[in-house]
Structure formats: structure tokens, C-alpha cells
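Hi F.,

I've been meaning to write this up properly since the lab meeting, where we talked about keeping a consistent format for the predictions we share between groups. The idea is simple: the sequence comes first, exactly as it goes in, then the C-alpha cells exactly as they come out, then a line or two of notes. No screenshots and no reformatting. I'm using this chain as the first example so we have something concrete to point to.
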Amino acid sequence: MSFRGLRRWAAGLLISACAAGSAGSAWGQGELSRKVKSKIAPAYPDLARRMAITGVVKVEITVAANGTVKSAKLVGGHPVLANAVLDAVKKWRYETSNEETTGIVEFHFDSAQ
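Output, unedited:
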């Protein structure tokens, strides 16, 4: 990763940490036009809890026509939180459609109470 890329990532992380929501939870909201039929909430990683890591993780997902998540790619957020989000979002199911759709989903993490 270049210095510029690292600097952008660090700035995004700082902004994400300032944008955290309610305590002790992780929740996702999406920008996809398709409705979610079932969601799995990401587990707050123990390491993140011990270190009081909070913030927003953004993931770009591609949903297949049958409603399954075909791919999920990290767009931004703390690496300690990222794997929990990627694991959870891959289990989401959407309504069926005639074609694939792609969008960004944000997960807001707050430290445990």
C-alpha cells in the first residue's frame, strides 16, 4: 500500500471512529434497492471489545439474481472489525430479482457497555 493510500485509510478510519452509533452493538444499513429477507448481525470481536474499538465498516456487496450475496468486498473500516462484517453479510439473503445488484452496506460498531 502506498503512503497516500495508507494516509487515506487512516483518515477514513478516524472519520469512521467518530461516526459510531449506539453502545454495545453492531448494525447494518444498506443502499441497495432490493429488500433484505434475512440479516445476520456481525459478532463484535472480543479483541475489538477489549481494545474498545468502535467505528463504521463499509462493505460493497453484489447480490445474485436469486438473492444470495455473491461477493463482499471491504471498502473501509477497522481491520479488527472487518472480518466479522464480511462473515455476517455473506449470510444475508435478499429478495429475488431479474439481475445482479451491487451496493454499499455500512455497519456501525460501538464498544461494549
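Notes:
Residues 38 and 64 are 15 Å apart (CA to CA).
The radius of gyration is 14 Å.

If this format works for you, I'll send the rest the same way.

G.
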